[in-house]
Write a structure and sequence with these properties.
By secondary structure, the protein is mainly beta. It folds into five domains: 124 residues, no CATH class; 99 residues, no CATH class; 108 residues, no CATH class; 179 residues, no CATH class; 131 residues, no CATH class. The protein is built from seven helices and 53 strands. The strands form eleven sheets. Strands 4, 5, 6, 7, 8, 9, 20, 21, 22 and 23 form a ten-stranded mixed beta sheet that branches. Helix 1 packs across helix 2 and helix 3 packs antiparallel against helix 4. The chain starts with a helix and ends in a 5-residue tail after the last strand. The relative contact order is 0.08.
């Protein structure tokens, strides 16, 4: 008999037994495989017990034989599942897993109901909607993206999020309020305006202040977190609930689960350093529950009894009636658990498997308020349905500028509007036209529009001033909105405003480099003549570089020069650390404070670098070391190279010699150092040996360094480490 066919038909048997789960005995005590007589193919009649009454008596006996074998195989297969032991495939020596750069999934962070409510409460004061105005009505569009982000976090990674929004009451800026059903316009005659909608049309076009709405969503009240690994392969709870890791290896993890019905779960394979390995797919199957197995065992026992006493049944119909009565007389047992087997494939074999079991989701409703995203204004852009043009209405919804513009847009600058005033035909007769847009504002105290003398807005400086561009690729200047005039002429390029300083180059074309940088006030007065190769700003200071790039000066925002005469700045003020300067003639180094005063730090070195995280690299001869903010030598100059200190450590390269090393027991001892790139702390203790350097990326005053070193054991493999020596990746370079 074909075994596959037997196992498939066993599912039919379970269904036939009643569609519900029944029991006759304590199933927890029955955990042994079944054994018994086997039958040849000639002694079998394949099928279930539903049509056994239609067979001849001899064929009915063969059907009983078939059912005996089928139920026995089903019970024994389940027995093997229930008694699986954790199987671990070792990859340390065989290296059967593919070597590749690993990918990772975002870590799942549970967000149960109470935390969802807290997240929504934090959003209450920032929720907004947009209101669009027409000639005799308006529409609102709810900005639900912040809410959707919360609901997305509260769902499982693969769950479709579906929340419902219901506008309840509207409040206008004139103090009136009405329920949605009194002012909303139904899209269809039968539409219920209280139903879900993020867009609503209204009968009035006057501006709203805020709206009340109800949001309905699903969330789970609580969760369990289960961690399984090779040393802890099974976790059990009361009522038969369990989670078992049955296989681990070959980038896969297999599980047997008995989870409470109604719950959902999220499974992630974790790397040794706590990252979620990329999930390459999974498959899962429902398995027969212990109560169902108990029913099958009872059913099996009855089948054996029928086989032994088959002569009791005079007709096949009598046999079928007996089997039907037998199953009906069984007492039902409620199913509280769902049983399943699952297999997950990852980018690598996980060190552990984390299971989040989420309680059954429940319907929640929150009452929220959304404010009009547009602040109170004297006028509002409105669209006229009759002419398909736009104009302006006042707070009462009355036209103050007739709808004569094809399009009007708000800009980021309050009181300034972008309008389409015409088109340029491209001459290709293909129907395409290029729109001509201009900026407008209202003349002070009137409803008269005034066209502004520029084609682009680069930057808003404050409430009244903006950096503007005359035309595309043209020069920049500064426009004063209150005075409604240009205050810095549009005759500069590459502008940047820092405080009250306008940094730029004189010029009329952005793509030409034929002038130097200077600084002007916001009224157009020249403060530093345009004679610099570059001017930059950082943390309240201005840095200038001469055209020959030999002199670098530093100023405060009042343009008081800070570096002493004869000295050039070699770095920047950062994180309350002094600035490195060098005498142009003697080439001696010094550190100065923000007032330009030299600090009492002796620097008898061939090279000094700027401070980074409280340490400055020094060079004596051909070797490097480091000093602290007091000038004390904390790292003697013994290294071939020494990179900028990160928050705690710095990378150094050693060719050989003696130094201090941290042992596994935590003791600092003298040691022969002969191992490429190492990480040292600020007391010159070797904290970690990395290996032969391939490449690096290091910044000053940060902790974002990344080091790539060759693997000491596997040829062509590169390991990646962060600033603290923690491995963050591994890959084989593509030489192509």
């Amino acid at each position: 008999m074909n075994r596959i066919k037997l196992l498939a038909s066993s599912l039919i048997i379970v269904t036939v037994i009643g569609g519900s789960t029944y029991y006759l005995m304590d199933w927890r005590a029955e955990n042994t495989p079944l054994s018994g007589e086997n039958y040849s193919a000639e002694e079998l009649n394949e099928g279930g017990d539903a049509d056994i009454g239609e067979l001849s008596l001899s064929e009915a006996q063969k059907r009983i034989n078939y059912l005996i074998l089928d139920v026995r195989d089903t019970v024994n297969l389940n027995h093997r599942f229930q008694n699986l032991k954790l199987e671990i495939t070792s990859v340390e020596n065989a290296k059967t897993e593919e070597q590749k750069e690993l990918r990772y999934d975002p870590l799942f962070v549970p967000l149960p109901t109470e935390e969802v409510k807290q997240a929504l409460a934090q959003l209450k004061s920032s929720l907004t909607f947009q209101q669009l105005y027409f000639d005799n009505q308006s529409g609102i569009r709810l900005n639900v993206e912040p809410l959707q982000e919360v609901f997305k976090r509260a769902a499982t990674p693969e769950q479709y999020v579906q929340e419902h929004y219901q506008v309840k009451t509207l409040y206008w800026r004139d103090g009136t309020q009405l329920p949605i059903n009194d002012v909303g316009i139904p899209i269809t005659p039968t539409e219920d305006l209280s139903q879900d909608s993020t867009e609503v049309e209204l009968k009035f076009n006057k501006p709203l202040e805020h709206v009340d709405l109800a949001v309905t969503y699903q969330s789970y009240p609580g969760f369990k977190k289960i961690v399984l690994d090779k040393d802890h392969s099974k976790v059990t709870f009361g009522g038969g609930e369990y989670y078992q890791l049955t296989a681990l290896g070959g980038s896969e993890a297999s599980l047997m689960l008995a989870t409470p019905k109604g719950t959902t779960y999220v499974i992630q394979g974790m790397s040794h350093d706590g990252k979620a390995l990329y999930n390459n797919g999974s498959n899962s199957n429902s398995v027969i529950s212990p109560p169902q197995i108990a029913n099958l065992r009872t059913y099996y026992a009855e089948l054996l009894r029928i086989r032994r006493n088959f002569t009791e049944f005079k007709t096949p119909r009598a046999l079928q009636e007996h089997l039907t009565m037998f199953t009906k007389n069984l007492s039902p047992i409620p199913e509280t658990l769902a049983y399943s087997s699952a297999s997950y494939r990852f980018d690598a074999t996980p060190a552990s498997v984390v299971i989040y079991v989420l309680q059954a989701p429940q319907k929640q409703t929150v009452e929220l308020q959304m404010a009009n995203a547009e602040s109170t204004q004297e006028r509002y852009i409105a669209f006229d349905n009759k002419t398909d043009n736009s104009g302006f209405i006042d707070k009462n919804g009355l036209w103050v500028v007739a709808p004569r513009f094809e399009r009007i847009d708000y800009t980021e600058v309050p009181g300034v509007y972008r309008m389409v005033v015409g088109y340029i035909n491209d001459g290709d007769h293909d129907g395409w036209r290029q729109s001509i847009t201009k900026y407008f504002t209202f003349a002070s105290g009137t409803n008269t529009l005034k066209q502004l003398p520029f084609d682009g807005i680069e930057q808003q400086i404050n409430d009244s001033m903006i950096v503007v561009q005359q035309h595309t690729n043209g020069p920049y200047g500064v426009y004063d909105l209150k005075k409604q005039q240009i205050v810095v002429p549009m005759q500069y390029v590459n502008p940047k405003v820092v405080g009250t300083l306008f940094i730029a180059r004189p010029g009329t074309k952005t793509y030409r480099i034929d002038s130097n940088y200077g600084i002007w006030s916001l009224s157009g007065k020249e403060l530093l003549a345009p004679r610099y190769e570059s001017i930059s700003a950082s943390d309240g200071f201005i840095y200038t570089t001469s055209t020959d790039e030999l002199q670098r000066d530093v100023y405060d925002l009042s343009l008081n020069k800070i570096n002493p005469p004869g000295f050039t700045a070699l770095g920047k003020f950062a994180n309350d650390q002094p600035l490195l300067v060098q005498n142009r003639k003697s080439h001696k180094y010094a550190f100065i404070d923000t007032q330009g005063k030299a600090l009492a730090i002796s620097l008898p070195y061939d090279e000094v670098q700027s401070f980074s995280n409280g340490m400055a690299v020094i060079k004596k001869g051909e070797l490097y070391g480091a000093i602290d903010l007091a000038g004390k030598v904390r790292v003697p100059p013994t290294y071939k190279t020494l990179h900028s200190f990160q928050k705690n450590l710095a990378a150094a390269e050693i060719e050989g010699g003696e130094g201090m090393e941290l042992t596994d027991e935590g003791r600092v001892v003298e040691s022969k150092l002969d191992y490429g790139l190492v990480l040292i702390d600020k007391d010159n203790v070797v904290v970690k040996k990395l290996g032969r350097l391939r490449s690096y990326a290091i910044g000053s005053d940060s902790n974002e360094a990344s080091y790539q070193v060759w693997d000491a054991e596997e040829e062509n493999r590169v390991n990646v480490f962060d600033a603290d020596g923690k491995q963050t990746g591994s890959y084989v370079p593509n030489e192509n």
